[in-house]
Amino acid sequence: MSVTTRDVEATAIDATSSALHSSAAAKKTRRSGPGFFTWLFRVLGQLLLAVLFAAGILGLMIWLSGAFEAKVPTDRTMAMAVPPQIEEGEFDIVEVRRIERPQVETAVGTVRAAHEVSVASKILARVEEVNILAGQAVRKGDVLMRLDKADLEARLEQAKAGEAAAEARAAQARADFARAERLRANQAIPRDQYEAAATALKAAEADLERMRRTVKEASIIEDYALIRAPISGVIVDKLVNVGDTVTPGQPIATLYDPTRMQMVATVRESLAQRLKVGQTIPARLDALGYECQAVISEIVPEAQAESRSFQVKVTGDCPPNVYSGMFGRILIPLDHESVTVVPESAVRRVGQLDQVDVVEEDGAIRRRIVRLGRSFSEDREVLSGLVPGERVRARKTTPIAPPDRIQKIQAIAEPMPNQNQNGNPSNSAASADSVASTPESEVAP
After folding, report:
1. Which residue ranges are recorded for the region named Disordered (predicted)?
2. Cα separation of 408 and 445, whole Å?
3. Are 140 and 355 within 8 A, CB to CB?
4. What is the dihedral sign for C-alpha 381, 384, 389, 392?
5. Most CB within 10 Å of its CB: which of 220, 266, 339, 384?
6. Is 431 in the same domain as 406?
7. Parallel, antiparallel, or unpaired for β 78-80 and 261-268?
């Protein structure tokens, strides 16, 4: 049986068609099979995780910015429910005052000793003994250090030997002169021989005096080996140790008189014109919490070119534990100023806010946020929030009830009811009733 060309072509076409159908079926099976859904779920899961992560970051940023915290409205006052049984005994009603007080400016300074001495050696020698420590009190004449004096002792002995020889020569010269005087009186010797004996006596006595001064000098130099305190005071520091070799003029210790201290302050040139020697001004030592009235002892008549300021030295009563180098201030009086103040006992500190309880004309108590400034003894400066004449509640310094019986109350922020267009309450009595119905809880007053 013969196979024609047409049969071969038909067979090839059928095979190609079968292959195409098989490939299409495989692709369709792959798209609709389990592998496609797995890939789809993986992609959707990754997208969901990315969205959740972004949402978490956004929520964290909003929380950190304080969006979920309760804010204190600026158009609301803070009212407080006060138990009537403790209101009378614990608080006083005081007025906000305006006072006149002197205005001062502070100039910083440093405590220095008015009398400070640097002790130095007068000879070249080795240190043999040190009898001082930093901070030790000494009296005038106490031996601070001992230096090696072997060569000084030898020099002194040599001077004493020379003095003895000079005394012998002087004695011989005096004897010769006495004999010459007797012979001259009897005309036994010529005049020139007599004068020679007199000259020899004068020379011998002069040489003896010179040797005596040499001995005194050697004795004084020997005493230089003992370094003594020139004043009574306190040792600041010792600068040498045993075994060191010191030279003439080399500082070996520093001491100061603790009973004569002063503060050296730097005052700018515009303020220095207000000061004069003998003027009394306040001075303060912050580290000791000490304040006193000091007297200006010196004003250095030369401005420092770098800071355009003068050095002012003040002296005053010196308390214990004051040391050279401590920080201090002087208060320079200026003009008077008018300041609104409220008692410190009327201020409550809540977080970063200062609050006071204001007593209204109808007797209602409103807690108000104020801005405070400087402290003046028992008062605080009011920068804003109160005006002179307003009444506030202040805690008494001595409670009349035991601490365990004092009840604590909570400040509750509420909007004023029935506010008009300007934000002012239209019915104070209704506001007081709403406050009285507020439940109590425990917080620090």
Report:
1. 396-445
2. 6
3. no
4. negative
5. 339
6. yes
7. unpaired
Separation CA 333–CA 106 (nearest Å): 9
Q: CB under 8 Å to 82, separation ≥6 — which residues?
A: 365, 409
pLDDT (tens place) for every residue of the chain, 445 residues total: 444 545 545 555 565 555 555 555 545 544 445 577 788 888 888 888 889 989 989 888 888 776 766 655 544 444 444 444 334 457 888 999 998 888 888 899 999 988 889 999 998 989 999 998 988 999 999 999 999 888 888 888 888 898 899 899 889 888 888 888 888 888 888 888 888 888 988 898 898 899 999 888 888 888 888 899 999 999 988 899 999 999 999 999 999 988 888 999 999 988 888 899 999 999 999 888 888 889 999 999 888 888 889 999 999 877 778 888 899 999 998 888 889 999 998 999 888 899 999 999 888 889 999 999 988 888 899 999 999 999 999 887 654 444 443 344 333 334 444 444 444 444 333 333 333 333 333 333 3
Question: Whose structure tokens read 């000793």?
Answer: 113
Tell me the C-alpha distance between 275 and 77, whole Å: 49
Token pair for residue 254? Answer: 């520093």
The verdict on 147 and 240 lying in the same domain is: yes
Same domain, 135 and 250: yes
Contacting residues for 136 by C-beta, under 8 A, at least 6 apart:
234, 235
Q: What is the DSSP letter of 12?
A: H
Place of tokens 């014109």: 273
DSSP string, 46-62: HHHHHHHHHHHHHHHHH
User: Within 13 Å and on the Cβ side, how many CA atoms surround 180?
Assistant: 18
Do 127 and 110 share a structural domain?
Answer: no
How far apart are alpha carbons 360 and 342 in whole angstroms? 16
The three-class DSSP label of residue 314 is: strand
331 and 363 belong to one structural domain = no
Residue 272 neighbours by CB distance under 10 Å: 21
The token duo for 356 is: 């006071």
Considering only CA atoms, which of 385, 358, 392 is closest in space to residue 79? Answer: 358
By three-state DSSP, how is residue 297 classified? strand
Residue written as tokens 């917080």? 443
Check: CB of residue 125 under 8 Å from CB of residue 247. no
Q: What is the dihedral of CA 269, 274, 277, 283, to 10 degrees?
A: -90
Query: How many domains does the chain fold into?
Result: 4
Q: Model-level pTM?
A: 0.48
d(CA 326, CA 323): 6
